[in-house]
Each structure stands twice: as C-alpha cells, then as structure tokens.
Write a structure and sequence with these properties.
By secondary structure, the chain is of the alpha+beta class. The chain contains four helices and 13 strands. The protein has a five-stranded mixed beta sheet. Strands 1-2 form a two-stranded antiparallel sheet.
Length: 229
C-alpha cells in the first residue's frame, strides 16, 4: 500500500548542479547529491599537505535469498550502480505500478546503457508468503529480466531494518493497510561505492524518466575525462 515515506535523509551533502562538460550530445555533467549522514576528517598526504576527506554514508551489508534460492549479498552489488525498491506480490495498490515502471526502466537500461553493469534489486515486505518460487512466478509474469534483477526475500526484521537503516525508507506490517503492509513508493539510486544518490517516486512515469537520466549522468561520472566526449 502506498505510504508517503518520510525519507530520513539527515543531510543532502552535495546540491544538484551542472558544470561545463564535453558530455555526449552536449549534455552537461550533472553531479548528483549524496544522501545520509557523513563525517569529515583531515588527511595528510606523503608531502604532509592537509586536505579534508569526506566519508559518505554507505548502504550496510545484507544477505537475502533470491527467486532462484540463491543467496544475494551487498558484495554482488558493490562495484555496480543499482536501483532498489520494496514491494510484495499480493499488493493491491501501488506495487503493480512500481514493478511495471521498473520493467520499463530495465528495458531502457538494456537499450541505452547495456555495458554499464547496472543492476536492480527488489525486496519483498511479505517474506512469509513471498517465498522464492512465488517471487519467480511474479517476476516472470511481469516480464522481468533476471540477468541483472534480483527479487529477494529473507528474515522479516532484516528486510525491514534494511529499508529503514539501509535506504531510509518505510516497510512494516499494518492491519489498516491494504494488503496488510505499508512500504515506501520510492526507487532508490545507489552508486558503485554503496552511496545513495537519489530517490524517485516509483509510481510516476516522469520521476522514473528522471531516474533514467540520472543513471546516465552517474554512469558518465565514472568515465575517464578523455571519454566524456
């Protein structure tokens, strides 16, 4: 069920801005913000020159079971840009919209960013019912491509904690919610280092379009300067 999640973003560490760049098609290089707590420390290099190093929030480690009964962990995603969300297979409200938008996003990635190693990760909020076989049936029915998309289940509290403390989102059981669960309607963009770089309304076509544009900018930001032409 849709619940406007209060994203517990402690700080947006870098404002979204553009700067001059030789990006493809004359598109400026956009520097996406970082979300979450951070700390700074003074670092001295070999020449004893001081500079400030910022340690940004990283999504904590996780281990869940996917649609093929295979363990999936943060190690499978670290080093990859990925998009993540929460859902459940019997959801009567926003989940069908969100999953159809994710399928559309995956198709855009395959068409335009096929070599970028982008992955997708969907967590159930109803692990008691959403066992791997049900996840696979659901994902197959909506047309998901499993080559870079995992649908995961696991311990309920670990799934909920990952939502709250890992992605600053909402996921919990509720007797008053349609289908028995509240969960955030956002898709979250995570970079290769595990830093959260964006939140997008997964029920909105225009928001998911923006997510795709931000994916392109994030991919571009990892390219050597000489290749940004």
């Amino acid at each position: 069920m849709k619940k406007k999640n209060a994203i517990l973003v402690v700080s947006i560490l870098a404002a979204l801005f553009s700067c001059t760049s030789d990006a493809p098609h004359d598109t400026p290089l956009v520097r996406l913000p970082y979300f979450g707590e951070h700390d700074m420390e003074i670092v001295h290099d070999s020449a004893d020159v001081s500079h400030v190093d910022t340690n940004y929030f990283q999504v904590p480690g996780f281990v869940f079971l996917n649609q093929d009964c295979t363990m999936v962990s943060h190690r499978d995603y670290r080093g990859h840009i990925y998009v993540t969300d929460y859902f459940f297979t019997t959801c009567p409200t926003i989940c069908p919209i969100m999953t159809s938008q994710m399928v559309r996003l995956q198709a855009l990635v395959h068409k335009h960013l096929s070599g970028a190693g982008i992955k997708f990760l969907s967590h159930t909020v109803d692990p008691d019912y959403d066992q791997p076989s049900r996840l696979k049936d659901y994902a197959t029915r909506i047309g998901a491509d499993f080559s870079n998309w995992n649908f995961v289940t696991g311990n309920k509290e670990e799934l909920y904690d990952q939502a709250r403390y890992g992605y600053f989102m909402t996921a919990f059981e509720s007797d008053t919610a349609a289908g028995g669960f509240f969960h955030s309607d956002n898709m979250v963009l995570v970079d290769r280092e595990g830093h959260i770089r964006g939140y997008y309304d997964g029920t909105s076509t225009s928001e998911v379009d923006k997510l795709f544009e931000d994916l392109k900018h994030l991919v571009h930001s990892y390219e050597p300067e000489d290749n940004r032409k």
